[in-house]
Every structure is written in structure tokens, then in C-alpha cells.
Amino acid sequence: MHDYIQQSKSRTYTVESFLGRMALKGQRQIWEKFPENVFVKGRVVRVNPYKKKYVYITLEGSGYQLTLKSDFETRPNVGEYIIFSGHAVLKPHAFNMSGLNVEVIGESVGHWKPVEEAAENKSLNNNVPLIKKGTTVLLSQYLKNSDSTNLLVLGSETGLRDVGSCCGSEIPIEMEQVRVRDTEVFSEDLRSAIDRRKPSAIAIVRGGDDETLRIWDEPELVGKLLDLNIPFYLAIGHSHLSTLADKYADESFHTPSSFGLALSSHVKEIAERDSMRHEIELLKFELKNNNNQINELNSKYHKAKNSLSNRTNILVAVSLFLAGCLYYLYQ
């Protein structure tokens, strides 16, 4: 059985990818495209025995669950990470007859370790210490202090295209295609790009969900990224995947598109904020000029008022003097 599992690695699905394959079709005919036995891996979160004949098992992935049916004697324990093999069955939903439930009938044929645990064990076994950065710099924080052209986006052709389509021509970014499917080749391309471009931060993007993602669980590669001593951001898989490199990145995104949308949003937000700040400074300048003009007019008003007051006092004095003279003459 172990040899058969090894031969069938390419057909081992996560809970999410397994359900996703069905969602793409949404019809019973999809099972004509599946192999006779399907392999699904996940964590056992519930085991419900039925009359000591068989058990219903709830297998959980990163956010979705799948129902399995197995013999009572071969039931797994709650908390185990298992590989389950069996036949997939679609049947009407118990409470919603317009929908279908998915059930896999078979048995547990092996165990596996989550990505992070397996990668960390490999790090310990290979004596490759990985030390997390003292501080991380989120993408939004980086863009507040640096221009987007100082961020170098490295990745596959598909990943770069996804980022570019989300950013558009109005967001200036530096991009370079590198080979992301082999550790040594990527390390060589990475060093070459860093030496030539000298960026203050990098982002690595790639699309697809295949076995080449395993290189991002290699401590040696993660160590090289940490040794760059600059912020690095990752968008190398899909929402149900998490690698060792994701754990040590300054910020991780599910897909190149989600990174591109975040980059575009942050740059536009910062540009709008700068524009508003500029407008506020202009208004302050205009207000200051208006205040100066008001003060100048106020000064002129007081001078005119004082001049008029002085003239009035002179007229009053002259009038009193003339009145006194007339009074004296008539006496």
C-alpha cells in the first residue's frame, strides 16, 4: 500500500483542491475524469461511529471540511493528519435537495505532516537555523516611506502578468521575470537581479499549484531571503497553501493578483493622501495671505479712523473758539 501511495502522489488532493475540482464542473460527469481511487489529505476533526460497523469522519483542510466513510476497525483518531483513499460519491443534500453532498468511501492509508511542521523539522535535522526578523515591514508601511519603483517584483511570467493587470499603467513598478521552480536556479536569478537593480525591497510572485511549490519549504532558500536584509513579500500559491517562506516573509499574499490589488490600493491611497495634504497646504497659504490682507486693511482702517478723529477734534476746537469770539463781540 505504501508503494502505491508513493506512485499516486500527484493525485493526492488537499480538502480545498478536491472540492475545488468539483466546483469547476458542478455536474456528476466530473467523476468520469477522476481516477478510480482518489487520495485526499487533511486533519481529522470528528469521528462518528455507527453501530460499530463503520464510521463517518470529518476531514478538515485550511477552511473547508469533507465527509469520509470508513470501516469501524480502521478508523483514525481525532487530531491525526491522514491520507484517505477511496471512491467519491455525490448524493443529494439531506436538507437542501437542490444541492449535492460529497462523500469519499474508503480507508486511511497513511499519515502526513503539515507543511510548516515538516519544514521546521527539516531545518532542525539539517542544522539550518532560521531566525525571524526583529521587525517586519508591512507593504503599506514600506510604501509610505519608499517609492513603488524601489520595490522589485520578481516572478514567473504568469505571476508578473497577474500583478501588472491589477496595477495597470498608472502604478509605476519594476518587474523582472525569474525562474521559480528550482532552488538553485532561482537563487542564481535572485542574486543577479539584486546585484543589478539594488532594490530596497522585493516581492516574489508565481501562479499555479504544483509540486514545485516544495522549494519554498526549504530552509536553505528561506535563509537566503532572510540574508538579503531587506523586506520581502510573497505571493506564490493559492489561498489553501502556506509555506515556510510565507511564515518568514514580511507579508504574504495568497496569489499574485491579491498582491497586485494590495499594491495598487496602497499606492493610490498614498497618492490621494499626498494630494489632499498638498491641497491643505495650498489652503493654508491662501488663508495666510487672506489674513495678511485683512490685517493690512484693518491697519488702514484704524489709521483713517484716527485721522478722522483728529480732524474732528480740531473742528470742535475751532468751533468752540469761534463761538467764544462771537459771544465776546456781542457782549
Q: Strands, helices and their partners?
A:
Blueprint: H1 2-7, E1 12-14, H2 15-25, E2 38-50, E3 54-60, E4 65-71, E5 81-92, E6 100-111, H3 115-125, H4 139-145, E7 151-155, H5 157-167, E8 174-177, H6 183-197, E9 201-205, H7 219-227, E10 232-235, H8 244-248, E11 251-252, H9 256-330
Parallel strand pairs: 1-2, 4-6, 7-8, 7-9, 9-10, 10-11
Antiparallel strand pairs: 2-3, 2-5, 3-4, 5-6
Strand percentage lies at 15-25%
- Whole-number count of domains: 2
The first-to-last residue Cα distance is 145 Å
* Poorly predicted sequence stretches spanning 5 or more consecutive residues: 1-10, 24-34, 95-99
Query: Which strands sit side by side, in order, in the main sheet?
Result: 2-3-4-6-5
- H-E order: HEHEEEEEHHEHEHEHEHEH
Specify the number of helices.
Answer: 9
Biggest beta-sheet profile: 5 strands, mixed, barrel
In CATH, the architecture of the largest domain is 3-Layer(aba) Sandwich
Shape annotation: elongated
CATH topology of the largest domain: Rossmann fold
Helix share, percent: 40-55%
